[in-house]
Amino acid sequence: MLRTRHAGLWVLLLVLLAACGRPETLPPLPEDGVILAFGDSLTYGTGAPGGESYPEQLQALTGRTVIRAGVPGERSAEGRQRLPGALNEHQPDLLILMHGGNDILRRESMDRLRANMAAMIEEAQRREVPVLLVGVPEPALPPRPPALYRDLAETYGLAYEGRVIGRILRDSGLRADGVHPNAEGYRKMARAFEEALREAGAL
């Protein structure tokens, strides 16, 4: 009896560990689904020729419509104000939220950044729009996102990608300047997001 109970506990532990390693799930995107890529210059595609931004490349990879809603130089407080209108206009099936880089570069309050990101996530969730959250790294060695991004993903149960931008910024061959990818960097970004969406079950 004791041995059976121990075996049951081991099975439960293994199930919990396996669950910890899995990404949060996303509902499958319909074939005619719309993805809203929302952010700042990294979403706009600064540093690459026209047609080479990550939303445009992700559209080619997924076969879904990807709306490029990036505004260079925008801070999270401005994005928070802009997002409701973008959601109203495009009625997306999925939101890729990648914001906060300008707050980080200007060393603005991380508490305000967290609050603005949380407000954007809650705006999407009120409308039942699933979110893939992307962590934007700090200018450090190695570049990695502040903990607030992963904390938000865990708090709100979001699919999360926090590695690809740091990897791009560490490789001078993938950068147009100190903070923006070139066309190949955006290609790697789009592939990473496609992989994240596949792992989460959206594709």
From TrEMBL:
This is Lipolytic enzyme, G-D-S-L family. InterPro entries: Ester_Hydrolysis_Enzymes, SGNH_hydro, SGNH_hydro_sf. It comes from the Bacteria. Residues 37-187 form the SGNH hydrolase-type esterase domain. CDD domains: Lysophospholipase_L1_like. Pfam families: Lipase_GDSL_2 (PF13472). GO terms for molecular function: phosphatidylcholine lysophospholipase activity. PANTHER family: THIOESTERASE 1/PROTEASE 1/LYSOPHOSPHOLIPASE L1, THIOESTERASE 1_PROTEASE 1_LYSOPHOSPHOLIPASE L1.
